[in-house]
Structure formats: structure tokens, C-alpha cells
Design brief:
Layout: H1 11-18, H2 32-52, E1 67-71, H3 79-84, E2 88-92, H4 96-106, E3 114-116, E4 128-134, H5 143-152, E5 154-165, H6 169-178, H7 198-207, E6 210-221, E7 225-229, E8 235-242
Parallel strand pairs: 1-2, 1-4, 2-3, 4-5
Antiparallel strand pairs: 5-8, 6-7, 6-8
């Protein structure tokens, strides 16, 4: 584990998610909710990529020639699709167990992903074209420092994409009261007090020298499952870039 003075990792959170490593790729297991979220997140990411780097909307490899960094990668649910989109992917996670599971899943498929159990703060400042961090900031010890670390590793023309639960009465019910009782989310996964509103996260991002380009809600529809939405009351996705672009 990293030196706490140089890292925003919360050791208790790392241990919690590390305990789920063996089951991460089971779509009906402890990470079932992430499997359901992933297609919607990927749709949002692909749309953001196509808008930011136009001309590749019909390509299966819109990230060809680009470097991507996925922070809080778990066992690779997002890192693998980014690799398939053509990116050279570096993926970080606080739990050694998750990194081991990620490597074991990627290698038989021939996916070359640079998985590291390394805090983002200890990664050399590097110009990544795409930086993603999905459902992570609500688990770190210092959100402001974490956002600064993400921004510091973004190239001048780069794109930062994050997702996180909103701190509302509805998210408390959906994510904890229901989600961690009958919704398949392991108990103890979330602390509602650590959720950030879109306004709070936007302020952190702007303080780190970036500008927010889009904030889109992520909602649940009984007929369709998870969908992108104008409602940000439960969860939302956010895209940012450097101001001086």
C-alpha cells in the first residue's frame, strides 16, 4: 500500500473492494450493478470521444493512437473496452487483488493493458488523452487532491470523464436503503455523506484548472434499466477539459 501522505487512497475502501476481486467479472455476483451500469457509461464515453475528436464516429477504434488512464479500474470492466477502442491503456486500482483479477481476465483475450496497483498521485505526470474515473471519487480520502491528480495527468487536448452518485435523499434510498439491501450492492459499499453534488464536483474540477463541458444524469427505468437522463438526482456523469484549449 502506498504512503498515505502521498495518496488519496482510503485503506478501508481498498480492502472492501479488494475482497470482491474474485467475483468482479460475474455479472450476477457482487459487482452485478457495475455490469448493468457499464453499457450506459460506455455509450456516454463514446459520445464524448466522438464530439471531442470528430471524424471517427464510424470507427471501431476511435482511440487509436491515444493513451487512456482509468483510475479505480477494479478488475477492468472499463479498461478492457477502452483497449478494444484502440487506446494504449494504463489502469490503476488501490487493491492488489483487483489488479490480479484484471490481468487474469485480460491476458487470455490478448488485451495488453498496463495494470498497476499504484495511486494516481504516484504515477508520473503524463499526457493522457483520456482520463476516466467511474464511481471512485466518493471512496477517496481527499476528493480535491484526487481531482487535481487526475487533472495533472491530462494532456492539453485531453478529456476527463467521471461518474459518481449525487448526494440527495433519493440517492440515499436508491443506493443504500434499497441498493445495499435487495439491490445487489454489497453492504458497506457507500457512505452517503461522501457523495458529491454536481455543483461540488464542478467546483473541484474548476479549481484544478479544468472546465466542465457536460453533466448528464444516470437514472433507472423499470422498462429499460439504466439510462442517460436529464435527472441527476441519483447518479451523474461529467466531462471536462483544460480551459485553455
Amino acid at each position: 500500500m502506498a504512503n498515505p501522505a502521498s495518496s488519496t487512497i482510503d485503506p478501508r475502501e481498498a480492502a472492501h473492494f479488494g475482497s470482491m476481486a474474485a467475483d468482479w467479472w460475474n455479472p450476477n455476483g457482487s459487482s452485478a450493478m457495475l455490469h448493468k451500469l457499464n453499457p450506459v457509461r460506455l455509450r456516454y464515453i463514446r459520445d464524448a470521444i466522438d464530439q471531442h475528436w470528430p471524424g471517427q464516429s464510424r470507427s471501431f477504434h476511435p482511440l487509436s493512437g491515444k493513451h487512456a488512464l482509468d483510475v479505480g479500474c477494479g478488475a477492468g470492466l472499463l479498461a478492457e473496452p477502452l483497449c478494444r477502442m484502440g487506446a494504449a491503456v494504463t489502469a490503476l486500482d488501490a487493491a492488489e487483488e483487483n489488479i490480479a483479477a484484471a490481468r487474469a481476465h485480460a491476458e487470455p483475450q490478448g488485451l495488453e493493458i498496463d495494470y498497476r496497483a499504484t495511486p494516481v498521485e504516484e504515477l508520473a505526470a503524463h499526457g493522457f488523452d483520456l482520463v476516466t474515473s467511474m464511481e471512485v471519487i466518493e471512496h477517496v480520502a481527499d476528493p480535491a487532491a484526487f481531482v487535481r491528480a487526475l487533472a495533472d495527468r491530462l494532456s492539453p487536448d485531453g478529456l476527463l470523464i467521471m461518474s459518481t452518485p449525487n448526494r440527495t435523499p433519493l440517492s440515499r434510498v436508491a443506493m443504500i436503503s434499497i441498493g445495499e439491501s435487495i439491490g445487489g450492492i454489497p453492504k458497506g459499499t457507500h457512505d452517503w455523506e461522501r457523495f458529491l453534488t454536481p455543483e461540488e464536483l464542478t467546483a473541484l474540477i474548476e479549481s484544478a484548472g479544468l472546465e466542465v463541458m457536460d453533466v448528464t444524469g444516470l437514472s433507472f427505468s423499470p422498462g429499460k434499466g439504466f439510462v442517460l437522463s436529464s435527472s441527476k438526482s441519483i447518479n451523474y456523469l461529467l466531462t471536462a477539459r483544460h480551459r485553455h484549449r
